[in-house]
Design brief:
Number of helices: 13
CATH architecture of the largest domain: 3-Layer(aba) Sandwich
Strand content: 15-25%
Oligomer: single chain
Low-confidence stretches: none
Number of strands: 14
CATH superfamily of the largest domain: Type I PLP-dependent aspartate aminotransferase-like (Major domain)
Shape: globular
Distance between the termini: 25 Å
Bound molecules: pyridoxal-5'-phosphate
CATH topology of the largest domain: Aspartate Aminotransferase, domain 2
Structural class: alpha/beta
Order of helices and strands: EHHEHEHEHEEEHEHEEHHHHEEHEEH
CATH class of the largest domain: Alpha Beta
């Protein structure tokens, strides 16, 4: 019987399992968001996040999910007469292209088949026209479990198109896989916190470059809630523009400190080990949806080569173990299924889940 009071443990690709010690952080007392105590909390949180994201630029805390930052990048940094190249390789990157259009900006789409990466060469071939002011790119496409070769793309962009802004959706990548923001030369990278930060949903972290902020000052009609310039002014005082979700910031500070103490190389390695385990199992029993070198370390999309009834297996595992994993996304429903291995999920938990899935498909 469904009961929100006794929810299943989540191995879907977000929101993911939130551990009890983390949840307790969200129950700390309210603070006045213009009080010194709050400014101290925000400053400590942002300083820790700068370390885990390898940046000295702006780290903004947004009381919104990541989709708000899709819109923020465009409305702040692209003038109405400019054109964006939206790279699309799955449901989320497709949706971002729609959002660019919804913001009234011109957009050209560079589309590849779901499960295939967008490469530096493909982007180069489009950008050499000189037509584009910015590109959108998804680091880890959560619908297919694919990562784009973002480091190669970044190198190409820095060398050949240093004036084109680069906006990166790192929703299911941030902190689970390398992201050296300043070295990559990106203008925005963002994630909601219900993925690798392993917090409850409803909040996002956005890294924004100085040049994106400077550009924003030339763009008309940026709106209020997601206005980077106003965000930066508030951040000077270690505040946010509007009343933030302070419980999330308590949780984020706690998680960011854990990441700093663990060391980012170790964090990425931990994610890779879980991914390796799931991929090895998937290859032995099914097949990977993406070519392995493009497979994300934070979730695995498995091709349902044995035509198992995915929904039945998920509900059997839920019934017996009060645990759920992910079905395929939209058009990949039933032909794939997805297992998340990010955030505070551990290898023993992943192994246990795989064992339960095996019991159902024997
Ligand atoms: C890659 C990617 N981008 C964007 C989103 C949208 O994030 P949110 O629902 O937090 O706005 C998701 C959600 O799963 C995602 O996986």
């Amino acid at each position: 019987m469904v009961d929100w009071r006794n929810p299943p443990r989540l191995f879907i690709p977000g929101p993911v399992l939130v551990k009890d010690d983390v949840l307790q952080q969200l129950a700390r007392p309210a603070l006045g968001h213009r009080a010194k105590e709050y400014a101290q909390l925000q400053q400590e949180t942002v300083d820790l996040l700068k370390k885990v994201l390898f940046t000295n630029q702006y780290v903004f805390l947004s009381t919104s999910s990541a989709s708000g930052i899709w819109e923020a990048c465009i409305r702040n940094c692209v003038r109405p007469d400019e054109t964006v190249l939206a790279t699309c390789c799955g449901a989320f990157s497709d949706k971002w292209a729609d959002v660019v259009r919804d913001c009234g900006r011109n957009v050209d789409v560079l589309k590849v088949e779901w499960g295939k990466p967008v490469t530096a060469e493909m982007i180069d071939q489009k950008l050499c026209s000189g037509k584009y002011a910015a590109i959108t790119l998804v680091y880890s496409e959560t619908s297919t479990g694919l990562i784009n070769p973002v480091y190669e793309i970044a190198e190409m962009m820095k060398t050949k198109y240093p004036d084109v802004l680069v906006f990166v959706d790192a929703v299911s990548a941030m902190v689970g896989m390398p992201l050296h923001f300043d070295r990559l030369g990106w203008d925005a990278a963002f994630a909601s916190v219900q993925k690798c930060f392993a917090l409850p949903p409803g909040f996002a972290v956005a890294v924004v470059s100085q040049r994106a902020l400077d550009k924003s000052k030339t763009v008309p009609g940026r709106g209020y809630y997601f206005n980077f310039e106003l965000w930066a002014e508030a951040a000077e005082k270690h505040q946010t523009l509007v009343t933030p979700s302070i419980p999330h910031i308590y949780g984020l500070r706690y998680q960011a400190e854990k990441l700093v103490n663990e060391g980012m190389e170790n964090v990425w390695k931990r994610h890779r080990q879980m991914a390796d385990y799931v991929r090895t199992w998937a290859k032995a029993n099914f097949a990977l949806f993406c070519e392995e070198r493009y497979a994300s370390n934070t979730l695995t999309t498995i091709k349902n080569t044995r035509a198992i009834k995915v929904a039945d297996v998920i509900s059997a595992v839920q019934k017996k173990h009060n645990t759920v994993f992910g079905n395929g996304y939209k058009k990949l429903k039933d032909v794939t299924f997805r297992i998340a291995h990010m955030g505070d999920i551990s290898l023993p938990e992943v192994k246990e889940l795989i064992g339960w899935i095996e019991d159902e498909i024997k």
